[in-house]
Amino acid sequence: MRKTGKRIWLLLAGYAVSAAGVLAVPAQAADLAAPVTMAAAVQVESPSTSMALSPVAAAMDLMRSGRSADALALLEPAMGKLQGMSKGSARPYCQHDGSVARGVRVLDSDLCDALYLRAFALTELGRRTDAVEALEQLTQLSPDYPRYFVELAYAYRASGDKAGAMETYRHAAELASAPGQQKYRAAALRGIGNLLVDKGDLEGGEKAYRDSLSDDPQNKVALGELQYIARKRAASEQKGG
C-alpha cells in the first residue's frame, strides 16, 4: 500500500476543490444538510494560524496531518444526507463534466467531495471492505467519472481482489479517453502496469507504463517502475545466460 503522506499529497495535487476554493464558493444550503454546508465551520488549529474551515477543507487539513480517523468523523454526516436523498424518485448524481442526465438529482459538489474524501479516509485507515463499498457507491453516483473508478481499483487491489482491480482500472482508462482526463488515464495505466508486473508479465507491464507516460511524461512512479523492469529483465537474462 502506498504511504499515507504520498497518497494525501497526490489527492491534494489533483483535487478539484482546494481549501481556499471551498471557502470562496457560496453555500447552497437548500441542497445540503447543516453538517456538510460551507457555512457549518469547524476550528482547525495549524502551527501558524487558527481559522474556521468548512468540513471538506478541514478534513483535507486533517488528512494531510495524518489524522484520517478525525477526518472520517468529520465527514460521516455526508452519508446521512445521501441516504436521505436516496429515498426520492430521482437518482442522486455527482456531476463533474457540466452535463446533466435526465431523471437525476444533481448533488451539491461539496457533498460529493465529502463522500469522496470519506472513501479516501477509509482506504487510508485500512478499512478495506468499507472503502470498497463507499467507492462502489461513488461510481454509481457518477458512472462516467474516471477518478472514482481509479480509486475503486486501488481499493480492490489493496483488498486482494486483483481481478476486480484490473477490470476496474481498464474501465477507468476507457472512461478517461475524453479530453482533459489524461491524468486519470495515466493513473489507470500505472495501476494496470503494477498488476501485470506483480504476476510476472514484464512486457505487458512495461507497455502499460510507457503508455501512461504519453499522458503524464514526467511521472516518477512510471519512470521508476520502468527502471525496475529493466533491472529485473537484465538480472533474469544474466541468470539464464
TrEMBL record:
Kindly state which keywords UniProt assigns to this record, in alphabetical order. Answer: Signal, TPR repeat
Q: What positions does the domain Bacterial transcriptional activator occupy? A: 56-174
The record's annotation in PROSITE patterns points to:
TPR (PS50005)
Signal peptide as annotated in the record: 1-29
One Pfam match, given by its short name, reads BTAD
Kindly give the Gene3D superfamilies that the UniProt entry links to this protein: Tetratricopeptide repeat domain (1.25.40.10)
Positions of TPR repeats: 186-219
Name-wise, this protein is Tetratricopeptide (TPR) repeat protein
Q: Which organism is it from?
A: Novosphingobium sediminicola
